[in-house]
Design brief:
With 278 residues, the protein is mainly β. It is built from one helix and 14 strands. A hairpin with a 5-residue loop joins strand 12 and strand 13. The radius of gyration is 18 Å and the shape is globular.
Length: 278
């Protein structure tokens, strides 16, 4: 993720990432059903700067995923998920994002999946907290062919910190079905986290984690939970650009086994003027 000042929060050393991926690919079981993988991202606390508009394309595909329709949900293996995210910064503490979800299915071609809206607020920097803190609320619709819950509401607290070359972020998100198979069953716990390290001034490497543990009131058995690890790279292409690429490995039968993802973003609007050096 790029910061408000145009610099990128960077990520973790790489020498061990290759062996980790290889071991996980050998151990990860085949998936039982699909996960919601239209926007695979760990949020940082920084917002889009006032007057700027960030346009991002989230692309991912399950190289190894579900291979047939299950519980009315289309297969993920061989399908490409393309999400357009447009976020505008209104003040230093408030932004709003809009998502357009689409999918390219092997049998039926390109399809509209749904739309979400996401207002977000953050703790002002003037408060001088030791960590960055923000909170997003995401609400929207997905077609029944892609989700057992068509209308959902997500609450995502976001905490992060940069310490030298290291960066960490934690998103202890919860999600509630407003219409669909899980409507009226309470909130699900869907945490996400990231740790990263600046390998160079322009490349950061790290690990991202995504999970779905089921309903808070009744956590799913481990085999029915979703857990995925993504070794990732964040590449600094300049102050207006954002580029994140990764390969995700599923760790439970309920998770797609192997997903490849990319996030490419560009900032429109005025850039912050750097303070003169003294």
């Amino acid at each position: 993720m790029l910061r408000e000042d145009g610099r990128e929060a960077r990520m973790t050393p790489t020498r061990w990432l290759g062996p980790v991926i290889a071991v996980m690919l050998g151990l990860a079981p085949a998936p039982a059903w699909a996960q919601g993988n239209f926007e695979i991202q760990v949020y940082g606390s920084e917002l889009t700067a006032p007057g700027q508009t960030m346009v991002e394309l989230h692309s991912n595909t399950a190289v190894k995923g579900t291979t047939r329709t299950e519980d009315g949900i289309l297969r993920t293996q061989g399908a490409f998920h393309e999400t357009l995210e447009i976020t505008h910064g209104f003040t230093s503490w408030f932004e709003t994002g809009f998502y357009l979800f689409t999918s390219i299915q092997p049998e039926s071609g390109w399809e509209w999946v749904g739309d979400h809206i996401r207002p977000r607020v953050r703790v002002p920097e003037s408060w001088h907290w030791p960590v960055g803190v923000s909170l997003s609320m995401e609400f929207g619709y997905q077609q029944r062919d892609f989700s057992t819950d068509t209308w959902t509401w997500e609450i995502r607290p976001i905490v992060d910190q940069k310490i030298g070359r290291w960066y960490w972020a934690f998103n202890p998100a919860v999600e509630k079905s407003l219409k669909g198979d899980n409507a009226g069953k309470g909130f699900s716990f869907t945490p996400a986290a990231k740790v990263s390290y600046d390998v160079t001034s322009r490349i950061a490497a790290g690990l991202e984690y995504y999970g779905d543990l089921g309903k808070i009131s009744h956590i799913d058995p481990p085999s029915e939970q979703q857990h995925m690890i993504f070794p990732v790279l964040d590449i600094d292409l300049g102050p207006r650009w954002e580029l994140n690429v990764g390969v995700g490995v599923g760790l439970t039968p309920a998770t797609d086994r192997l997903i490849v993802k990319m996030i490419l973003g560009y900032r429109f609007g005025p850039m912050a003027t750097p303070e003169p050096t003294r």
